[in-house]
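Task: complex structure prediction.
Instruction: return structure tokens for all chains below.
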Amino acid sequence: MSALVTALRSIVGDEACLSGPEELFVYECDGLTLHSGEPLAVVLPRSRDEVQQVVRSCREHGVAFVPRGAGTGLSGGALADGGVVIECSRMNRIVEVNAADRYAIVEPGVVNADLSKATASVGLFYAPDPSSQQVCTIGGNVAENSGGPHTLKYGTTTDHVLALELVLPSGEVVELGSTAGFAPGFDLVGAVVGSEGTLGIVTQATVKLVPLPERVETLLAIFPDVVAACRCVAEIIESGLVPAALEIMDRRTIAAVEASVYRAGLPTDAGAVLLVELDGPAVVLPDQVARIREIAARASASRVEVAQDDAERQRMWRARKGSFGAMGRLAPDLYVHDAVVPRSALPEVLAAVCAIGDRYGLKLSNVFHAGDGNLHPNISFDRRDADELARVVAAGAEILKVCVDAGGVITGEHGIGSEKRDFMGMVFSDDDLDAMRRLHDAFNPDGLCNPGKVFPTTRFCVESDPKARGYDRVPFDG
Amino acid sequence: MTSSELDRYRELLGADGVAEHAALELAGAEFELTLKPNDGAALAALLAQLAENGRRALVRGGGGRVESGNALRGADVLLATDRLTGVMEFEAAEGVCRVAAGTTLAELRSRVNAAGWEVPLDPPGARTTVGGAIAAAAIGPRALGHGPVRRAVLGLEVALASGERTRCGGRVVKNVTGFDMGKLYTGSFGALGVIESAWLRLRPLPRSRRCFEVRASDPEVALRAGLAASRRDSAAVAAVRLPVPNTGEAAVWVEFAGDARSVDRDADWLCGEWRAQVAPADLVDRVRELQAELPGDTGLRFRIAVVASRAPALHAELRAGGAETLGYPGLNVVYAGFRLPPGEPAAAASAAFACASRAAQAAGGDAICERAPVWAKAGREMFGDVAGRLGLFAKLKQGFDPQGVLNPGFFAGGL
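Output:
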């Protein structure tokens, strides 16, 4: 046992320090199974002080440390090859719910959905709702600036974090932001949210709570193809309506869902369905529902269903939220891609994405946050098939290029992590990246905190070379 | 400044971009030279040249926030952004636009309103520029409905002090590609770089707007009414004035905006519950002017942020210290204006700083001084208590502007 592991055990206790191969196996990757690497150890601290001591101990031994929430991230952001994983799941207390001032103070391991459950009785909820919200944690959400279906109206995590307690990579503890908002000086909360755990480890977060809407209307519009559904979304945005959510599922996704435990009675002969959620005052929603119906009809919707009760609404959402799980029926592996394009470009980009999937002979399906222009082309594949894996990688790179060429960016909510670091040059110049590096170095000058994320290791033409992206380290278990 | 140095600036900016003038005193420094780049390339080249010449610059947009911030620690030139103008792209179908930093908000509004969109920035000042509003994270009364400045900013092009042109974010409405540098630059008062242009998220123009006034003799009643109004679905503005001059009463000013049915329902509620009276359509403009002019021609203005439940005690403490206050309950913001009598202004200023600091601390909030004469700034921190974060602030300033070219001394901690 290394001296560092001994030191870590003395800080968190034997049962909260994992170092055996069978224990470390489950920590060798996050939700992006394409990238993996075994950590040296995993610690599960229970307090800020333990996090601080762990960080200091890692520093003394010159070993990298990587914060991790529930491990649901999809860009390899929690990958800790040879480093120490600091898993915050045991720091899961809701410290305070202040209904009068509409905020909550939570530890980083609080599960996203649990916070809204805890505040529902006072008529409030925590708005960011990533698809993994039943298991993902607030700390992870802060690191990734997580979104979700309802961010169209409510914004992403950064719009809901007021203050943070952070253990810096030096081991020092700082408090950033303020409960009231408008903290003086640089907006360091804004800088830390979405920094993918490279600027420190969040040990407490103060987040906004928002009132539960008076009424919710959920509609399902059926379209002949995904491009028509995208045109409908573009028209809704142009009309000035701001739905709470606008989500599209294409034909292949519908088929997978309807063949799974998440089946919801979606029409399997449809080319795409658009899920529209409106929320707000009861007096305004009937008019908004009528306007959505009109727009959908103009955009070639064959019909529009309106959920008649909560059970029906849940059924519609079950299909959407279960769609990634349903993909498990199509192939052993799923590559959940993530990119954003201007909403007006959705029809053309979707057509191009589908063409790329066809050209590479891949099972590509689309389920995505259309209202934000946030695409999730999902590629179902078998990583034991080396040729198919190479096609997945190549198609993924082409998809990103199409999105960037349309004025978009390479990730809307999953982050860069290890997955897309070498694609940063598609979007940013060396000077742009250098500015980010200056921010990074103010917090994490020697890079011991979550190394190998966000910043490219190389700048040129990596998309054509899987090895340059780290795929040469994919463990083949066939 | 040597003639060869001036010639070099003319070479970079053109003759129209270099203005020599009589001494102009701003933020504690005196300027006889104003440099006005007319595009991003000229801005970046100018910054590189200033760094090479060892010159320091005060960056100015519309000029409305020069009274805020700490006194400059010396500066050689005024860098004005008023020739960086124009709406460079406007996607009416998307509700996003890219606009040059020196464009006034008024000009931008006139362009996008006609297409059914609203600029979600409404700080005071007819000459306020897009870049200035972002650099100061300056809010106005409609921030309640619009959200903070940071939410409106989708992307920025920023020239760094060493002359590199950089970009962050972009035109899309959801984006986690790399660090969120836009948040860092927003509210940084030009300490890290000069904003060249911005991608902004617009909002649909509301279909209906209605304004109301509630009068109350009891300040706490007014604050309760203001907070309740701010939490209605269509609340766009909720402001509480304590006291209204010459009346002794408190006034609550409310604008509801959005879907007409929602606005009407909230209006009925306000009139029924709080006996509100209909107010003129220019109510919000008057509230914005009041925010800018508080406390009158001479004096100190503080912006204090506290959570809603602590606001009544804060207002009371500030008023006991001689302040007039304007609160935005839903925003957690209270403006406090202290007049400085001609006889003993220094003693009055000391008392005002002490009162604002004490009141903010007691309420668990943060106070910053937004407006003060230069003489009152000596030995004081205009950004309030930043001690716990100053180390990180200094590292950032050192990383982005190691030579201290931009607004030296102006930012928090005298950075």
